[in-house]
Design the sequence.
């Protein structure tokens, strides 16, 4: 682990939380029959957050594989 690992991990975690937060807002909006436009907006935000999460994860894995700073924790929870 190094400073870069630390930074990437934090960014990755932030993006995961952001994605989860937006997903639950979208579910809530759909469950409460919110306006279609509101659901569409949220769905678009979820899409953006999803891409960001994937990009953060890729950046983290990239750093870990090129630097040899790999952490087993990421392998242990590939679903997030
Ligand atoms: Zn590192």
Sequence:
């Amino acid at each position: 682990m190094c400073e870069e690992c630390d930074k990437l991990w934090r960014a990755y975690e932030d993006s995961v939380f952001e994605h989860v937060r937006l997903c639950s807002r979208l579910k809530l909006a759909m469950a409460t029959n919110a306006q279609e436009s509101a659901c569409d907006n949220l769905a678009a935000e979820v899409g953006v957050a999803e891409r960001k999460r994937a990009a953060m994860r890729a950046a983290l894995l990239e750093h870990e594989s090129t630097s040899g700073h790999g952490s087993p924790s990421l392998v242990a929870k590939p679903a997030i």
